Amino acid sequence: MGLPWPRPCPAAQPVAEVFAVTPPARSPSPQPPSRPPARSRRARWSRRLAISTAALVLATSGIGHAVVTGIDDGIDRVDPFGGLSSRPGTTEGMNILLVGTDGRDKITPAERDRYHLGGEPCHCTDTVMMVHLSADRSRASVVSLPRDSYTEVPEHTDPATGRRRPAHPQKLNAAYAEGGPGLTVRTVEHMTGVHLDHYLEVDFTSFMKTVDVLGGVQVCTARPLKDDYSGLDLPAGTSNLNGGEALQYVRSRHLDGASDLGRMQRQQKFLASLIHQATSSGMLLNPMKVRDLASAMLGSVRADRGFGTTDILALGQAMKDFTPASSEFASVPISDVNYRVRDLGSTVKWDETKAEQLFRAIREDRPIAARHSGGPDEATPVDVAPQQIRVRVLNGSGRPGLGRAADRALADTGFRTDAAPTTAQGPLVPQTIVGYDPRWDRSAKSLATALPGSELRQVPNQGPVLTVTLGTTFTSPTKGVHKVRPQDPQQTGAETRPIKGDEVVCP
Q1: How many CA atoms lie less than 13 Å away from 19 in the CB half-sphere?
Q2: pLDDT grade, residue 11 (50/70/90)?
């Protein structure tokens, strides 16, 4: 099945109420709706990870009904499926949509200040993840959906005005603001062709408490990570993060030009480490610890009524031997990270062919990741993948045509050039110069590695596009452009290759 952009959407039905779901191997069908309680929209990126904590960590415990008694009453219920029509066909296994919104009403003033959690919520989904649990419960596949993904929001009734809105182009994260969980589910099912069985939201508070109950989560980084926006400040090496520090780690977007794409990679690594911590520490064999973990969720989780104690216990029995090697992670393949759309600005456009291959594997209950040998090659490893670095070439060498040749060579190496090199103003430049905004210093160093002998020069407020001004010493692309590759085995540029969970946990 193709994914044309935009793709016609079926007319929406009025959003109804919740239906009950049991966890058979095949996806269930909706039951008669009931009336959910009203609730304010809740937390953001952390939700999907805390959601995964709730669904996967509790599920792996298999302790028994007494430990999870009361969870149903403490979880707020929403109706994301009632009244939906023209849905994709059911699939083997279970598909869970994990979303996080920008609410922060339960964060204390001290936590707001310490972990940089101020600001006003946007009431939209900042992150979206799809979790597929295989029919035999031996595998969990987690797919990150970029929040700025270009899509077509289906026709729906505006909950604020009661008026019908026709289908229209939009970013994925705006579907929640326009129509809540129901419209979010319809939009994701429309984009992926995957039938969703359950819906979960978790807020900042639940995320932080869950990590603390686990005794912290260990993460590894090859370089220091510092983000003034989130307050993240980690040294190179291994760090054990408490709940607040973990929240900073998974929400940081300003470590470099990779922005949300780099953040999705860190979130996947964090979730793999969290699963490793939960399954290797023995805490899941401690009923009191599991009860504490359940208590951390209460009052901070929203879910469809079908996802309750019975589901958790059934999954726990089936997944008691779950390990990081049983998990796999991927991000939707992308063809354009800066797809311009009128009235929307910059959006992320999926690669139709590769995205369809990924979601077909989900629909067919097949693995999405394979082991990679990662054998050596002639390319030099760099911190930032060239596919994430935008470059504009200026010819300051005085040799006509050299700018276009260098542009092609950099593009062949993977850099995102604008394919429109120009002649540099002023006198000839002796040495090739890489001009960069200080906020993109890692990208600049990676680009300079591909241009041996070049000079790095800071240009404040230049923005995310780096400039390469060719000097007179740059004689030919063959000698002047060196092949580079990302140092991180997960990073492949505008997307991440599917990986196994045990490939990214700390050694």
Answers
A1: 19
A2: very low
Q: What are phi and psi of 300, to 5 degrees?
A: -125, 5
- Looking at residue 87, its pLDDT comes to 93
Q: Cα(first)–Cα(last) distance of the chain, in Å? A: 40
What b-and-e string marks burial along 201-215, b requiring 16 or more CB atoms within 10 Å of the CB?
A: bbbbbbbbbbbbbbe
**CB 59 within 8 Å of CB 137:** no
Q: How far is CA 42 from CA 121, 136, 206, 354, 490, in A?
A: 9, 32, 11, 32, 30
The confidence score (pLDDT) of residue 51 equals: 43
Which residues 6+ apart lie within 8 Å of 275 measured at CB?
56, 57, 322, 323, 324, 327, 501
Q: What amino acid occupies position 203? A: D
DSSP per-residue letters across 387-433: GG-EEEEEE-SS-TTHHHHHHHHHHHHT-EE-S--EEPSSS--SS-E
Contact 315, 133 (CB under 8 A): yes
Residue 439 structure tokens: 């906020």
Determine if the peptide bond prior to 6 is cis (ω within 30°): yes
Q: Which of 412, 392, 415 is nearest to 477 (CA)?
A: 412
Residue 376: CA atoms inside 13 Å, Cβ hemisphere, count? 2
- For the beta carbon of residue 107, count every other beta carbon within 10 angstroms: 20
Rounded average pLDDT over 91-104: 81
CA angle 320, 322, 324 (to 5 degrees): 155
pTM above 0.85, yes or no: no
Residue count (the chain): 507
The tokens 């103003």 sit on which residue?
425
> What's the CA angle centered on 479, arms 391 and 427, to 5 degrees?
60
| Residue 320 binned pLDDT confidence (cut-offs 50, 70, 90) | low
Task: Decide: residue 270, CB within 10 A, 0-12 exposed, 13-18 middle, 19+ buried.
Answer: buried
For 60, phi and psi rounded to 5 degrees?
A: -75, -10
Dist. CA 170–CA 151, nearest whole Å: 6
Give the helix/strand (H/E) hosting 302: strand 301-304
CA distance 204 to 85: 33
Identify the burial level of 505 via C-beta atoms within 10 angstroms of its C-beta, where 0-12 means exposed, 13-18 middle and 19 or more buried: buried
Greater confidence (344 vs 319) lies with: 344
Show Cβ contacts of residue 119 under 8 Å, excluding neighbours closer than 6 positions: none
Closest CA to 97 of 70, 127, 118: 127
CA distance 329 to 249: 18
Pairing of strands 380-382, 484-486: parallel
CB 204 within 8 A of CB 212: no
Q: Where are the beta strands (DSSP E) in 172-267?
A: 198-202, 217-221, 225-227, 232-234, 237-241
